[in-house]
């Protein structure tokens, strides 16, 4: 279920009106906007090229990047972009749902060719897989309107987060440790398996705030019908990347396909359709971690 629907349902349960805003992009974007580029397609590893299929591990829901619409169709910024990438490579994407923390191990084990789940490219993750960067996102908190939460002074607060994200494994533990060192109560980190449940916890008052990637937070606020708002400012901007097997030449193929889509305007169109213009990049790289 898309976070938009979860938020709307939670608002109804808590006595608030449900949200009627559309959860889709401004205009339809499909792989039809991209075509096979022979030279780039020929660079794909032989085994993948011969199969004609790009097996993609994905964790949902994480709107607006990857989630299901009311008809059960997989949609989102990441989905539109990967569809265009696959078309450029002359491949058909085969999306396979998985737990977030199982995607990278499954790439290592050869089950998936690539991961597509808003992965932050980090040096720790680069030890086991390679990344092709495609977007820039920061972390951003949300709260109920007028809750007065300050991420820089959140000791003792309950903060919801999706498990195994950088916010869960790095940001919030570091903030909580600073509280302890200052003689204040730690942040109560409230983890959830899905991003929708983390957002829902704030809507229902089960958590004081939530920390997530900026596109996710901004989208949840838009879908909340004025019940949620930003808490604090965006911080820790870092690249999203597609993970592939360490040393695989598929990374170079993905890089070239993305450069092509940036050059012909398809990338910008997809980002604009999902309201994510601010996170666009103009120069993708392989392994661009900054932390």
UniProtKB/TrEMBL annotation:
Keywords: Signal. GO terms for cellular component: cell envelope; membrane. InterPro entries: Iontro_rcpt_C, SBP_3_CS, Solute-binding_3/MltF_N. Its main location: other. It is found in: Cell envelope. One of its GO terms (molecular function) is ligand-gated monoatomic ion channel activity. Pfam families: SBP_bac_3. PANTHER family: ARGININE-BINDING EXTRACELLULAR PROTEIN ARTP (PTHR35936:SF17), MEMBRANE-BOUND LYTIC MUREIN TRANSGLYCOSYLASE F (PTHR35936). Belongs to the bacterial solute-binding protein 3 family. This is ABC transporter substrate-binding protein. It comes from Mycolicibacterium duvalii.
């Amino acid at each position: 279920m898309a976070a938009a629907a979860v938020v709307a349902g939670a608002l109804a349960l808590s006595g608030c009106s449900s949200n009627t805003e559309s959860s889709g992009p401004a205009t339809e974007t499909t792989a039809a906007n991209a075509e096979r580029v022979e030279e780039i397609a020929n660079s794909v590893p032989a085994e993948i090229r011969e199969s004609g299929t790009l097996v993609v591990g994905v964790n949902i829901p994480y709107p607006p990047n990857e989630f299901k619409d009311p008809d059960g169709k997989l949609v989102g910024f990441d989905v539109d972009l990967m569809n265009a990438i696959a078309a450029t490579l002359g491949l058909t994407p085969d999306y396979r749902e998985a737990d977030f923390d199982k995607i990278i191990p499954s790439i290592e084990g050869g089950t998936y060719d690539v991961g597509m789940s808003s992965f932050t490219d980090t040096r720790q993750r680069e030890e086991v897989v390679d990344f092709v960067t495609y977007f820039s996102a920061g972390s951003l908190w949300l709260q109920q309107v007028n809750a007065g939460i300050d991420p820089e002074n959140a000791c003792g607060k309950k903060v919801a987060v999706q498990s195994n994200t950088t916010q869960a494994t790095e940001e919030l533990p570091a903030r909580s440790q600073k509280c302890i060192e200052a003689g204040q109560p730690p942040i109560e980190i409230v983890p959830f398996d899905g991003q929708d449940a983390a957002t829902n916890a704030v809507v229902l008052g089960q958590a004081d705030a939530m920390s997530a990637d900026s596109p996710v937070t901004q989208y949840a606020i838009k879908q909340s019908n004025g019940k949620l708002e930003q808490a604090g400012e965006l911080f820790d901007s870092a690249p999203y990347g597609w993970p592939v097997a360490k040393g695989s030449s598929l990374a170079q193929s993905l890089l070239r396909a993305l450069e092509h889509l940036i050059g012909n305007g398809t990338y910008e169109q997809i980002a604009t359709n999902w309201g994510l213009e601010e996170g666009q990049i103009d120069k993708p790289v392989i392994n661009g971690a900054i932390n």
